[in-house]
Amino acid sequence: MDYVDRIFIQSSYCGYIKHRLLYSFCLMFYMCFPFVEVQLYLFWFSSHYSCQVLTLHLPSQGAELRVKVNKLTSTKTQLPYSYYSLQYCPPEHIVDSAENLGEVLRGDRIENSPYVFQMREPLQCKILCRMTLNTKTAKEFKEKIDDDYRVNMILDNLPLVVPIGRSDQENAVVYQHGFHVGLKGQYAGSEDLKHFIHNHLTFTVKYHKDSQSDLARIVGFEVKPFSVEHQFDGEWKNENMRLTTCDPHARRAVTSSESPQVIEDKKDVIFTYDVAFEESDVKWASRWDTYLLMADDQIHWFSIVNSLMIVLFLSGMVAMIMLRTLYRDISKYNQLETQEEAQEETGWKLVHGDVFRPPTNSDLLCVYVGTGVQFFGMILVTMIFAALGFLSPSNRGGLMMAMLFLWVFMGLFSGYASARLYKMFKGTEWKKITLKTAFMFPAIIFSIFFVLNALIWGEKSSGAVPFGTMFALVFLWFGISVPLVFTGSYIGFNKPAIEDSVKTNKIPRQIPEQAWYMNLVFAILIGGVLPFGVVFIELFFILASIWLHQFYYIFGFLFAVFIILIVTCAEITIVFCYFHLCNEDYHWWWRSYLTSGSSALYLFLYAAFYFFTKLDITKPVSGVLYFGYMLIASYAFFVLTGNNWLLCLLLVYQAHLLNSED
């Protein structure tokens, strides 16, 4: 029984149903009042004022603990598979656990297992089953071992980890997700490479005992896998046989893999496990800290300092422009004595009659601005909640699900921003721009995702999104996001149009020949270097978390880097925009968007560098999946960083407004 997950609401019309809101409330109540001993009773009044009773069971000594199994994962293939895709010992009935949308998109497939413990009652050499391999199953095990697949399990909502000591630090331990399916090696005196299966697991369940009662809470779940060719006397009868290689009565335990179990056709494999319980000083509320503790936090502080130095440098340049250059230019303009002198304008004032001329493909710019606002809102709210600790890692898939729902509901602001800018460009067909805003970016992402999902489906991986989940995503898109985009566009378009601070000339001004360093491509590529320099250190840990399946939950650092990134993008856009306008180039709309947005190109190039230097992916399908998902991430990063163009628009608007008033 998963004790912290069995909270039900009794209703006369809908039976027993899970209620996640009350689930969270019960857990918070229990963490705040740990003196509650056996059962926690909370009362909830329904809309019919009927009193409902919620019961939260706690594991006492001897209570049954059931281990759940999750997907098989590999950093080599990036293709997850369900646990029972291999010939492991199944329970009497395989039952799939209810999963949220985020878990399904992550490829989680949580099922029950025959591993059963009794709380604080050690167990030694428990026989699970005896399996006979055939040619097909032996080949499948060998393929998974070659691809470094790991087995993932869950107990009391805690993931199974393998503790590994660090050689560079004394008494320091790092945790790895799951254990390897097996290993490869050679017998002494033989050159043939053999595959061996990990068929004996030594579990260690850590618990924190309450000082005032006999209750204990699980705070750790670790394992040490071994490969053992079990032996027994006589003929095999059932799982109650006594093994000669592992016998609790003779106090003979498995401590090494000296006689490993080879994987071959028609070979019998006996699966066994031990369970040890270890008291821990770690409290239940802090049990995730040991998994999420970062031993290299100094690198993250270095990342913050590095980013701050870049921001200070850019802030100095912007301050120089705002407080010195603009003020000096306007002051000199005001001090001119004659009208003839006043006509001899220089620099950015020369293009005041063309600076607000609508750019080419203005509709597309409106779409990207609206999408950028939507993406910025989603990231900002997600970061705030994650930094405050609301998106707990114990809620698998919670982060992805939160981002997905926030993206959908931020469609209201997306439609509003695109419609406001479209009306500023004197546009009249607001429904057309709304449709483009609602469909263009999601359609591109969904098309790439659909192709990648088809490749995963072709590999028969559990990571393939089922048809029902795909339908749910389409419903969120068409049923919620699109109407919200239309609502925002309707509100934005009915607002008074933003009037240009200066009148636009009817005849466009001729742009003088520009220096080579003011070339469009060169300026855009240079502009993306500094925003990427802000995030590239933290990006390394994010990629390691995604593709190397490492723990990552330092959202405080990430939120700080995110804020610094936004400030950097805004400042670099303002600086480059000012330089272009001073050179009498009034085509600043798309330049400003692409200046900081070009950092997405460096992100994709860094992803390619990471692929060839840090990952060991060999399968073509896995390589396509990697670059496909990183292309989606880079495209989203382009939309996010390029949208700082809005601050540049505000600066240009205010500068020319001040100039026209003077």
Automatic annotation (TrEMBL):
It is a multi-pass membrane protein. GO terms for cellular component: endosome membrane; Golgi membrane. The keyword Cell membrane does not apply. It comes from the Eukaryota. Keywords: Endosome, Golgi apparatus, Membrane, Signal, Transmembrane, Transmembrane helix. It is found in: Endosome membrane; Golgi apparatus membrane. Coiled coil: none annotated. The keyword tRNA processing does not apply. InterPro entries: EMP70 (IPR004240). The chain crosses the membrane at residues 21-44, 301-323, 365-391, 397-417, 438-458, 470-493, 514-547, 553-581, 593-612, 624-653. Pfam families: EMP70 (PF02990). One of its GO terms (biological process) is protein localization to membrane. Belongs to the nonaspanin (TM9SF) (TC 9.A.2) family. PANTHER family: TRANSMEMBRANE 9 SUPERFAMILY MEMBER 10, TRANSMEMBRANE 9 SUPERFAMILY PROTEIN. This is Transmembrane 9 superfamily member.
